Amino acid sequence: MTADLFDAASMYDEDYLHFFASPQGGAPTHGPLVGTAYTGANQAAGLVWRLLDLEPGMAVLDLACGHGTLANALAARGCRVTGLDSSAVFLDRAATAGTGVEWVRGDMRQLPEWTGRFDRVVNWTTAFGYFDDDTNRAVLREIARVLRPGGRLAMDLDNQARFLADYTPSRITVRRDDGDMLVDHHHLDPLTARFEVERTVIRDGRVRRLTFLKRLFAFPELRDWLTAAGFTGVQGHGEDGTPLTARHPRMIVTAGLQ
Ligand SMILES: C[S@@+](CC[C@H](N)C(=O)[O-])C[C@H]1O[C@@H](n2cnc3c(N)ncnc32)[C@H](O)[C@@H]1O
């Protein structure tokens, strides 16, 4: 396994849940939309249901499921859902919904012995592209391995065209009524198509800094990576399910295995 480019555990922690998974959490006040463009888990679940032709009883893997909003929503609609994530804090929160999802702590670079086990895989809210590119491509091969023949994948990522059009070097990402705040500085490296984010977390008067990285993808690049990993019929959509345009904040990529 390759060395991590950033410390995911310091990023996806209780502070993250405080800002992004509490009723008090807020939307970005200005600048590029890094988070999700969906108003709730049900909207995302409805979109996935439609794009992936989901049916009750299907075996679905939510890869990097986070605190489980999409996994729980798909389970509530009758799918047999497994949620895998590296964050114990997030999985603990996810399990409180009690929807019967199987929660697995693991690493997307090396999935368990699940070869051919899933009808569908979902990977949601920019939960791909955290590693060097060889490793990112290996993650796609892992996804192909755990899907059955004829299985399908949906990934929800930032839409590069919109992200760049809205790009701003710094912004207040979340500001809560109680004064807690996330302030982000972005450094975009065109040679790697990664943006490095220096995040300042201000909570209860305490200040903490961390950095994380994300990879931006143009659709044709990811289509070619998916094709090389064994997928066919790769399509790009916006968050409303229509064909991807430069205006959509989100890029939903769907693909199938032969
Ligand atoms: C942006 S969050 C998205 C979470 C969730 N999919 C959602 O829609 O809310 C990215 C997730 O990737 C997880 N993650 C980071 N590195 C990982 C790894 N190597 N293997 C599995 N999960 C990882 C984090 O813990 C976090 O939950």
Summarize the structure.
GO terms for molecular function: methyltransferase activity. This protein has eight helices and eleven strands.
Give an overview in words.
- The chain is of the alpha/beta class.
- The protein has two domains: 8-158 and 217-257, Rossmann fold (3-Layer(aba) Sandwich), CATH 3.40.50.150; 163-212.
- It is 26% helix and 32% strand.
- The chain contains eight helices and eleven strands.
- Strand 4, helix 6 and strand 5 form a beta-alpha-beta unit.
- Helix 3 (41-51) packs across helix 4 (69-76).
- It starts with 7 loop residues before the first helix and ends with a strand.
- Mean pLDDT is 91; it is low at 25-37.
- S-adenosylmethionine is lined by residues 8, 12, 64-66, 69-70, 85-87, 90, 107-109, 124-127, 130.
- This is Methyltransferase type 11.
- Residues 60-151 form the Methyltransferase domain.
- It comes from Paractinoplanes toevensis.
Please give the structural blueprint:
Blueprint: H1 8-11, H2 14-20, H3 41-51, E1 59-63, H4 69-76, E2 80-85, H5 88-95, E3 102-105, E4 118-123, H6 133-146, E5 147-158, H7 160-165, E6 170-175, E7 181-189, E8 194-203, E9 206-215, H8 219-228, E10 231-237, E11 250-257
Parallel strand pairs: 1-2, 1-4, 2-3, 4-5
Antiparallel strand pairs: 5-11, 6-7, 7-8, 8-9, 10-11
Helix pairs in contact: 3-4
Bound molecules: S-adenosylmethionine.
The site of S-adenosylmethionine has 19 residues, from helix 4.
